[in-house]
UniProtKB/TrEMBL annotation:
Cited Gene3D superfamilies: 3.10.310.50
UniProt-recorded name of the protein: Beta-propeller domain-containing protein, methanol dehydrogenase
Alphabetically ordered keywords of this record: Membrane, Transmembrane, Transmembrane helix
Domain of life: Bacteria
Amino acid sequence: MNKIKGKLILILMILILVIIVPVLNIKAQTQTLSPTSLKYVNDYAGIMDDSTKQYIVSVGNELENKTGAQSVVVIINSLDGRDIESYANGLFREWGIGQKDKNNGLLILISMKDKKWRVEVGKGLEGTITDIYSARIMDSVAAPKFSTGNFNQGIKDAYSVFADDIAKSYNVKLEKNSHIKVNENGDKNTKGIVSLIPAAFIILIFIILIFRSFRKGPRGGSGFGGGGFGGFGGGGFGGFGGSSGGSSGGSDFGGFGGGDSGGGGSSGGW
């Protein structure tokens, strides 16, 4: 029994490290980024022209004034080996994009050297901007332009589509938006969701190892007992609660409203 407990403790420690260390690392790294004075567009790679910046600021400001929702673009040079999903989620929460009581924020993150994009969606907008839909818009509207080096138009068009979708969910119309038409019958590309598979696979492996360790108890007995699972009840994993990332809300940082992300969205590349 002591050997089983030892194995269980070791597995749990590894699992905790796998989850917590990347979160703390991403949080520390995203703290070095502060929102620019333009708020809705934060170009740390220096690729956007002034007219595109002005357009996004104009549309973003109108969207927030009419709905309270905040749609933000962030462009970085490189992820430096980090995964874009964790980076985007950490940045979203650190800045607190969207309103705290509605969690109606949206982040479009683009990493130039990695040739990757991520759309991170606040909990309150997940019904409007679904994972599959955000992937389809980026793959059909933005990525083709990114591939030809036309980043300004690609970002502008994707931002326009998402802004219109959000406005429509609030039953308002944006006067300053260019209202990009999207082919509703187009291929609903799911490449963005595929990026979630590796993380899910790793977690599944750990769960299987835990079950196997228990089932190999002395004389074939089960190691579970009747008292549950150590100190971990049904209320979540340690201090993480029911959401990923270890945070229960945003930070209301740099003019944002303290919104939160539940980890919804999509990722891809060009």
